[in-house]
Q: What sequence folds into this?
């Protein structure tokens, strides 16, 4: 719980910096500040899904139940962060694009990722046999993570309304230093928060397995 | 004279996004706590 407390404190500190010590963007107004939680949320989701895929490969290879348990925990946290991304995005889009949602490539693929992540958790809940559950869900997880490069590159591959990357791109970041510092602090805080949530969820899974009736 | 851009007032959207994200994160942390409590009983 110590790591979770540190992570929550880091997120709160990042939010204080966003609210009181980061300038308001001239063209979008205060709505631009949604960027500081929206982008870290999807990058945290990618981190969690990366852990799911990696642990799934480890499970398929070694049949180690700890890997399966960690994959399950990271999968649930990935769904949380993808939900935050899909909730904050439309709230930004309404005043900036004039619409809550548009079926462009990046939004649609991210929604598809949300459904696949939810399906992964539903599949796990639907299979009683732990070996079959671990095997089937691991295969789905490895396939699901293949969506991530398509989502990131979708703004280059298709005509899309979604803004191009302004930090994670081959050139230098296009944000002014003050905003870039805020973004990096927020990203760091949310990545630690993501790891802390996965750890807390893993402990819960351990407790569940320890108290399970054979 | 170059016209100056007028910054729109989008504060309500900014606050709404932070409230929604906060509610989702808080809800998940509480669900972890609740599930652990139920298992310990």
A:
């Amino acid at each position: 719980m110590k790591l979770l407390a540190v992570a929550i404190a880091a997120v709160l500190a990042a939010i204080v910096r966003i609210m009181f010590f980061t300038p308001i963007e001239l063209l979008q107004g205060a709505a631009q500040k949604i960027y500081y939680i929206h982008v870290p949320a999807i990058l945290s989701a990618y981190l969690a899904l990366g852990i799911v895929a990696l642990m799934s490969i480890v499970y398929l290879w070694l049949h180690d139940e700890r890997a399966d348990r960690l994959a399950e925990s990271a999968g649930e946290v990935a769904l949380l962060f993808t939900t935050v991304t899909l909730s904050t995005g439309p709230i930004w889009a309404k005043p900036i694009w004039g619409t809550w949602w548009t079926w462009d490539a990046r939004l649609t693929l991210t929604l598809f990722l949300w459904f696949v992540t939810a399906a992964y958790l539903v599949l796990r809940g639907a299979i009683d046999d732990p070996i079959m559950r671990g095997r089937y869900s691991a295969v789905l997880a490895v396939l699901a993570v293949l969506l991530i490069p398509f989502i990131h590159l979708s703004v280059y591959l298709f005509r899309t309304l979604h803004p191009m990357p302004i930090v994670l791109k081959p050139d230098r970041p296009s944000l002014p230093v003050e905003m870039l510092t805020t973004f990096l602090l927020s990203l760091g805080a949310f990545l630690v928060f993501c790891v802390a949530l996965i750890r807390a969820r893993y402990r819960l899974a351990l407790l569940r397995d320890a108290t399970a009736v054979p | 004279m170059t016209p100056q851009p007028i910054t729109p007032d989008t504060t309500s959207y900014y606050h709404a996004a932070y409230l929604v994200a906060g509610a989702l994160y808080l809800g998940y942390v509480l669900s972890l706590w609740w599930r652990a409590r139920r298992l310990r009983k």
Remarks:
- The interface with chain A takes residues 5, 7-11, 13-14, 16-18, 20-21, 24-25, 28-29, 32, 35-36, 39-40 of chain B (CB under 8 Å).
